[in-house]
TrEMBL record:
<dbReference type="GO" id="GO:0030246">
    <property type="term" value="F:carbohydrate binding"/>
</dbReference>
<protein>
    <submittedName>
        <fullName>Substrate-binding domain-containing protein</fullName>
    </submittedName>
</protein>
<comment type="similarity">
    <text>Belongs to the bacterial solute-binding protein 2 family.</text>
</comment>
<dbReference type="Pfam" id="PF13407">
    <property type="entry name" value="Peripla_BP_4"/>
</dbReference>
<dbReference type="GO" id="GO:0030313">
    <property type="term" value="C:cell envelope"/>
</dbReference>
<dbReference type="InterPro" id="IPR025997">
    <property type="entry name" value="SBP_2_dom"/>
</dbReference>
<dbReference type="InterPro" id="IPR028082">
    <property type="entry name" value="Peripla_BP_I"/>
</dbReference>
<keyword id="KW-0732">Signal</keyword>
<feature type="domain" description="Periplasmic binding protein">
    <location>
        <begin position="31"/>
        <end position="293"/>
    </location>
</feature>
<feature type="signal peptide">
    <location>
        <begin position="1"/>
        <end position="25"/>
    </location>
</feature>
Length: 320
């Protein structure tokens, strides 16, 4: 109880010491947002959510697309500091390498909010809060679905190929970790190939082609860290004369409309949800932080799992 009170107090102090003079003036809030890029259907939906929420709330959004390059994000953050924005938010391409630029933001008294992806920094006070998904849990959910789905199969070994996300990114590291954690105790589930597909359709297809060339019909399962790579890989599987969803079980993460369409076509077996709709919460957080209100240190999005069996029922409700 005491430690909970202490955590709340610390969060309040963090928010208060970052409170900018804008909280006392009538001018519109200015947020600098550095986005990863436009690599996936998920990312496009995330950008739309953030831009729409800012517009709706009358917040000035300075938006920079990093084209999946950390150096572009560092440049964007420095430019936001120079422009004296009220708050900086960003979705970091990779986990490490942020200490210097975040120290610069702190020295300039500009609060930083992490959206979607986490960072690895030596000083946790370099950002105020994180808003996004629990990627390790997403990996576990994918693993649990597979364990259940394959429990009754007669195969002595089930060969899995894995398409990882961007090297060094939080979702790639965590989704791998969560999945491995769950399948570790199962002697028949074996990952035979694992390589990055950089979260894109084109790369997902290319790497799956290489997997198929090397392993052919030995492959029983594809685990893709996002829907776009799975969709690219599905194409590769079909071009190799195999049936995705049947000859090779396909598991992916995000829950975008493209994945639901693939499930409706019988080509994808399950998608684990990862919500990109972070815009409204981000705007609320920004207002609270700039006003000096206490905010939680981490806000985790609530998400589900959608197997192909529920795709037809769920599809009309999907918002991205
Ligand atoms: O960080 C979230 C991940 O990044 C999504 O799963 C993926 O589609 C995106 O590119």
């Amino acid at each position: 109880m005491q430690s909970k009170r202490r955590t709340l107090l610390a969060a309040a102090c963090l928010a208060a010491c970052f409170a900018s003079p804008a909280s006392f003036a009538a001018k519109p809030l200015v947020i600098g947002f550095s986005q990863v890029g436009a690599e996936s259907e998920w990312r496009t939906a995330n950008t739309v959510s953030i831009k729409d929420a800012a517009k709706k709330d009358g917040i000035t959004l300075k938006f920079a697309d990093a084209q999946q390059k950390q150096e572009n994000q560092v440049k964007a953050i420095r430019s936001f500091i120079a422009q004296r924005v009220d708050l900086i938010a960003f979705s970091p391409v990779v986990e490490s390498g942020w200490d210097t630029v975040l120290r610069e933001a702190k020295a300039a008294k500009i609060p930083v909010v992490l959206t979607d992806r986490a960072v690895n920094v030596s000083d946790p006070s370099l950002y105020v809060t994180f808003i996004g998904s629990d990627f390790v849990e997403e990996g576990r959910r994918a693993g649990r679905w597979l364990v259940e789905r394959t429990a009754k199969l007669p195969n002595p070994v089930i060969n899995i190929v894995e398409l990882q996300g961007t090297v060094g990114s939080a979702p790639a590291l965590d989704r791998k970790k969560g999945f491995e954690e769950v399948i570790a105790g199962n002697p028949k589930l074996k990952v035979i190939r694992s390589q990055t597909g950089d979260f894109t359709r084109a790369k997902g297809k290319e790497v799956m082609e290489a997997f198929l060339k090397a392993e052919g019909k030995k492959i029983n399962v594809l685990y893709a860290h996002n829907d776009d790579m799975a969709i690219g890989a599905i194409q590769a599987i079909e071009e190799a004369g195999l049936k995705p969803g049947k000859d090779i079980l396909v598991i992916s993460i995000d829950g975008v409309k493209g994945a639901f369409e693939a499930m409706l076509a019988g080509k994808l077996n399950v998608t684990v949800e990862c919500s990109p709709l972070l815009g409204p919460q981000l705007m609320q957080l920004a207002r609270d932080i700039v006003a000096g209100k206490p905010v939680p240190r981490r806000i985790t999005t609530v998400e589900g799992v959608f197997p192909a069996e529920v795709a037809a029922k769920e599809f009309p409700n999907r918002k991205y």
